[in-house]
Request: fold
Amino acid sequence: MKVPRFLLLLIALTHLAIPAVMLVRSDSLRAEVATQHPDFPASEVDASVRVALTSATVFHLLLAVLCVVLAWKLDGTRRWASRLTVVSQALSIVFSLVSWSTSTMFHAVIPVVVLLQLATIVLVLRARRT
Reply:
């Protein structure tokens, strides 16, 4: 289970990086919101960006913590950790697809993270069968 644990830690790092990148590129995020909602006044665009930054920070921080806990507990003897790893990474893939459709900011990163998540799922499922 060493490789899945390592992959979970890499995935956790991406979850920590995403809100930081969004904050640094908040002007790009603001431009995307303004383009998608041309009828929004500037104050509404700013509020939407704040909501996006806050929700992304909370969401990705929770997912990062979950990945770290799972990497710590995933040792082959805890079936719940294996199951939760598979379910959480599968759901994260779905969330990534939603992110893909709502913003172009992470189009270069999402496929890489999805591949890490798929590899984690496959390796955990394979380890459970042996």
